[in-house]
Amino acid sequence: MPDKLARVAHELGCRSMAYTYNDPVIFLEYAIDTAMACRAYGIKSVAVTAGYMCEEPRREFYNYMDAANVDLKASLRNFTGRSAAATCSRCSIRWYI
Predict the structure, then answer these.
(1) Which tens digit of pLDDT belongs to each residue from 42-79?
(2) DSSP category for residue 86
(3) Rounded to 10 degrees, what is the CA torsion of 88, 92, 94, 97?
(4) For residue 96, is pLDDT > 50?
(5) Is residue 68 a contact partner of residue 46, using CB atoms and an 8 Å limit?
(6) DSSP for 14-52?
(7) What are phi and psi of 79, to 5 degrees?
(8) Measured distance CA(92)–CA(85) in Å, rounded
(9) Which of 9, 34, 46, 50 sits most deeply, having the most CB atoms within 10 A of its CB?
């Protein structure tokens, strides 16, 4: 199915594929397989995520993503610094890959 998604996206002239609605970590293997198939057609992959992922799968996952839209789920400085590894003064991500 990932190959078919990539082929149809290419036939429709899509330049990117977004992995969204359910956080892509829920279907990590499928998202990676789809992203690999998309690369063969020159289609970019974009993760739309809350950003909560353990280090090992995060490194693997973002080897195949070209961009990410990280939706921070809280605005309290102590929450984001402790739970999301981000700072709220400018909402910059300290690490992601």
Answers:
(1) 999 999 887 777 888 888 999 999 998 887 665 555 55
(2) E
(3) 130
(4) no
(5) yes
(6) -SEEEE-SS-GGGGHHHHHHHHHHHHHTT-EEEEEE---
(7) -70, -50
(8) 9
(9) 34
Q: How far apart are CA 47 and CA 20, in angstroms?
A: 7
Residues in the chain: 97
Residue found by looking up tokens 């082929």 in the block: 7
Structure tokens, 60:
């693997």
**pTM of the complete model:** 0.73
Residues 6+ apart with CB under 8 A from 90: none
CB contact at 8 A, 61 and 48: no
